[in-house]
Amino acid sequence: MDFFSGPLPLTSITIATALILAALLFKFFNGRKRRYHPLAGTFFNQLINFSRLHDYHTDLAREHKTFRIFGTAGPEVYTADPANVEYILKTNFNNYTKGKYHYSVLSDLLGDGIFAVDGEKWLQQRKLASHDLSTKVLRDFSSVVFQNNAVKLAQIISEAATSNQSTIDIQDLFMKATLDSIFKVGFGTELNTLSGSNEEGNRFAEAFDDSSALTFHRYVDKFWKLKRLLNIGSEAVLKEKMKLMDEFVYKMPKEDILSRFLVLRQKDPTNMNDRYLRDIILNFIIAGKDTTAITLSWFFYMLCKNPLVQEKIARKVKEEIDAKEGTTFGEFVERLTEEALSRMHYLHAAITETLRLYPAVAVDGKFCCSDDTLPDGFNVSVGDNVAYLPYPMGRMQYLWGDDAEVFRPERWLNDDGVFQPESPFKFTAFQAGPRICAGKEFAYTQMKIFAAVLVSFFTFKLSDEKRAVRYRTMLTLHIDGGLFLQVFRK
């Protein structure tokens, strides 16, 4: 006890000091041994480049396959390296979750839906969705819904083509058509936004898109939590938009796919409450509406920039289903069977090539749960936000060759013209690993039905060749301000 109560002898002080210094030096030099990816910028650089954020990331990825940015919540690691992507999405999946940070940003909009959560809630929703999407009954029903909405869309475009107002905003039409489809397939509800008879549905869709943009902006806004607390600025607008959405969703009839979750609510009413059902609905909508509508919009933009591809798709589609002159829209879609669609390799390749250059989700973030070393030999630390970059990856010459930025559907076909898929860790439009998109085949089916009908009956051109077509920086890759096309009957 005398040792602790009295003054320490000089030798003891010297030894203690030496031990402390040794510990500090060990920590310092051990820390220096950890190799971190090059620091390429800060959240301030991302804020300045927000309107072109994905191109900013592309510029950085050309210099470094993987790089760091000091973000609003600390270090952020961004990668366009397929080896790192595979490690994050599959090999060490459990170490890279959505995490508390992403949940805090996304939860006001997406709540406890599948795109914002981990663990049991994610697994529960994933299992139910995967089961439903794998049934033949739902596949057949959804194909009929897609065909019916394709006919409705073609009739609207036909009216525009035969009138003096031949310019259409095709992105707006696709957004309405896919929204109608997901509500009918997922919830048993006829929304009818495409026909213009449901103004409330149109307001919901607009509020949903604006909420997506405002939510994504949180990633570069260091003060968004303060704004939310004070209910000012962008957060006040977001609150109003979400109020409108919630009012619409809560009074929806809850049928079909959602009925399976209602059964769970009977078993577990505490966790499966109305708010959770609302979250599930909104996540279904972003999966079924935004991704397909956005891809179709960019697809038709690419066709307008590459008219020979547009003509080739129309020719090959007609050859596959042996469409005769004078075939009506209704007769045409009846020929678009699952078997016929599976033979349309060139159309499938053109849609996939669109997704390579314009993925619906341009950047996808994860949270690092513990210190780790990526396959490239660099370290990431617990608490780092780690994101892979589908948009830049589609533009990297080391992945796709010197013509990486050229729209060339043939890169997906073998010598016999048969579609050849790439590794999902190189082509990341549908994610990969355990979180790979469960609705991938549904998305392709809807896109191929819509595209096959429209390119077979109409020719599309940009209404203004000089107008720049840019994306709107938000959760999904919308075309900013819409896509205005001139349309002509064939």
Walk me through the structure:
There is one protein chain. It contains 21 helices and eleven strands. The protein has 490 residues and is α+β, with helices and mostly antiparallel strands. The strands form three sheets. Strands 1-2-3-9-6-4 form a six-stranded mixed sheet, sandwiched between helices. A three-stranded antiparallel sheet has the order 5-11-10. A hairpin with a 2-residue loop joins strand 2 (66-71) and strand 3. The N and C termini lie far apart (99 Å).
Counting copies of identical and different chains, the oligomeric state is single chain
Number of helices: 21
What is the number of E strands?
A: 11
Distance between the termini: 99 Å
User: Helicity level, as a percent range?
Assistant: 55-70%
Strand order of the largest sheet: 1-2-3-9-6-4
Return the structural class: alpha+beta
Biggest sheet character = 6 strands, mixed
Relevant terms:
490 residues; alpha+beta; 6-stranded mixed β-sheet; 3-stranded antiparallel β-sheet; 21 helices; 9% strand; globular
In short:
With 490 residues, the protein is an alpha+beta fold. It has helices spanning 2-5, 10-33, 43-48, 53-63, 82-91, 99-110, 119-133, 136-161, 170-187, 199-217, 224-230, 233-250, 257-267, 274-305, 307-321, 329-334, 338-342, 345-357, 390-393, 397-400, 440-457, and strands spanning 39-42, 66-71, 74-79, 96-97, 167-169, 364-368, 372-373, 379-380, 385-388, 458-462, 484-489.
